[in-house]
Amino acid sequence: MLKDLIQRFSDWIDQYPWLEMLTSLSIVILLAFLLYVLTRKVVVVGLRRLINKLPFAHKNIFENHSVIRRIANIVPALFIINAIASVPHLSEKFVQMVQMLAQAWIFITIALSISEFLNIFNLIYQRNPKSQNKPIKGYLQLVKLIVYIVCALMILGTFLKKDVFTLLAGFGAMAAVLMLVFQNTILSLVASVQISSYDMIRIGDWIEMPSLGADGTVIDMSLHTVKVQNFDKTYTTIPTNRLVTDTFKNWRGMADANCRRIKRSIYIDQSSIHFLNDSEFEKLQNFLILQQYLKQKTEELSKWNRTVTDLRNQRRLTNLGTFRAYLVHYLRQHPSISQEETLLVRQLQPTPQGVPLEIYVFSKTTVWADYEDIQSDIFDHILAIIGEFGLHAYQAPSGLDLNTWLDQKNEV
């Protein structure tokens, strides 16, 4: 009886081919959806639980990325490719189009899965301390680009019904165009290799590139760009090849040495420079750090002057020379100044603003705030003590100085 019922239903539905086609197509779509749900809920969840039980690190990275879920999308596409041909009354062109679309979906899914896996690999690699010196993000982006190009060629070959190698042979004539299109990528790839080979930049380096307005810390390096966070919390994106063709300053050496240079001058009024008289000499002897210097210098000058009969040719101590010696001894005893690095107090070429007396030393810290405090404390002391040597720091006349001078002249 059931057999007769099925036969009658089959005879009836044969009278409506469109209904048979829609019913069969609905069944295929429903089964594909059920396979998708089954794969996501059973296979994907099962694989994730298996990964969680495996004894290896970085399991949380796999949990936060969708490599397994993307691969699961292939199952319903494979089912549609094989089942769509069994749907009756469909045109052959429609069947082929659906199969090609499903195949293209498979290629895209595989390409995205490979890209996601490369992202996971990069995150795991970044947790290695050596990754700061040898970032691989640029190389992984190149691999992604190749994968996407191969995927696009395979999809194009699917719709054109041609082999991939045949398409590649056809693209040989377009090599010049492709070189023009991908010239930035090629230049960036070569620059990335040079930067990595010569260890020019690492993530975390402080670089300064005035031509592009970059002055801060490197926070990301990719194939095409290097991202710098400036000290004012803005971001500058530098094309990778510009780091090879243009000039920039890398402060990594300062950080590795754990000291930072102080190079600043104070301008001495030339009219205040003179020989020390007896009262000034006695006054300066009260400075403990100058007693040994004054004693040694006095003995040296006495030996020289005994051989010179003309008083005009005799050598004498100057307040500027003594002040320079004082600063050297002061910096030698400063707890925040590195004694292993260069330490100079030198006189530069005189200028219309006075005689520059330059301090050239290195602080023991590279912390910005501490460095500025050390530098400011040194020059606070210099500006405060300079009057004890009878010297004056140069300062251009201000309006107040002119008013004071005019008032004094009027009183006279």
From TrEMBL:
One of its GO terms (cellular component) is endomembrane system. Its main location: membrane. The keyword Coiled coil does not apply. The keyword Transcription does not apply. SUPFAM superfamilies: Sm-like ribonucleoproteins (SSF50182). Residues 330-392 form the Mechanosensitive ion channel MscS C-terminal domain. It is a multi-pass membrane protein. One of its GO terms (biological process) is cellular response to osmotic stress. It holds the Pfam family MS_channel_3rd. Keywords: Membrane, Transmembrane, Transmembrane helix. Residues 184-252 form the Mechanosensitive ion channel MscS domain. The chain crosses the membrane at residues 18-39, 71-90, 102-121, 142-160, 166-193. It is found in: Endomembrane system. GO terms for molecular function: mechanosensitive monoatomic ion channel activity. Belongs to the MscS (TC 1.A.23) family. This is Mechanosensitive ion channel. It comes from Acinetobacter shaoyimingii. The lineage of its organism: Bacteria, Pseudomonadati, Pseudomonadota, Gammaproteobacteria, Moraxellales.
